[in-house]
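anyone seen this seq b4? input:
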Amino acid sequence: MNNIKLDEFSYFPGCSLASAEKHAGESIKKFCKNFDINLVELEDWNCCGSSSVHSIDTEMGFKLLSRNFSLCKPDSLLFVPCPSCFLKLRKAYYHLERDEKLQKEYREKWGKNYPKNLYIPHVFELLEIMGQLDLLKSKTKRLNGLKCVSYYGCMLAASRELRYGKGFYGIMEHIISSLGGVNLNWAHPSSCCGSYLTAMRPDIVQNKVENIMQGAIDAGAECIVTACVMCQLNLEARCELETRLPVFYLSDILSFTFEEKMSESHLSRFFINPKELLKKRKIL
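predicted toks r here
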């Protein structure tokens, strides 16, 4: 995909970005719009199955994912910002490409061949491509020394095959520093937040996210930046420490760099209000 053209491609928001974390999806669309990238939501997409379906019925999970593939065109790009959806979709497509039995079942189920050469990038890869094309230059303002720790979570630690042989760690730090932020080293860049245990065992999740939050505080950070909507939700909703840092989705950080200010309605959706910090750093 070295010759990729960033103008229009299919977009799979997943359930989180379409509902509970809708503001993250809105900030992604807003960011892309600033670079004349049109995100076309995949028509009639369905849930990836999340952890609940895949832990009980892997065959049903694969069918849910393959239905989304049936909505895609060959030689196209499907942008999936949610790490959980991204990992499941890319893993399913990886096996579909290499398994003739799965391809046969796919044809029988959907009445057509699977879409060949479907590229499924994560938000990091999109930003990497944009950086290579120098699209970020002259469009942004600086983060004014905002002290950040980058929190990748555990889902992106997938096999190299699913990452097209590339690693993602370091990308957020590079983006933050290039926009004038300050990266701090800390102990929890890939610690698990507890993910969907938040629905069944919130006590376990609370312990995990409070360790992560305290680690960021001990590092001297003013905020946590993540690219996982589940991580952001758990850190904001389950942490009950007296001192809590704002938790930004990566696209929020990117949207701060434009002259247009973030709306009050967007700011109001954060559980941990970031307004005072953003004013302090003269970002708002």
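The first strand starts at residue 8 and ends at 11. The CA atoms of residues 107 and 253 lie 42 Å apart. kinda curious what u guys think
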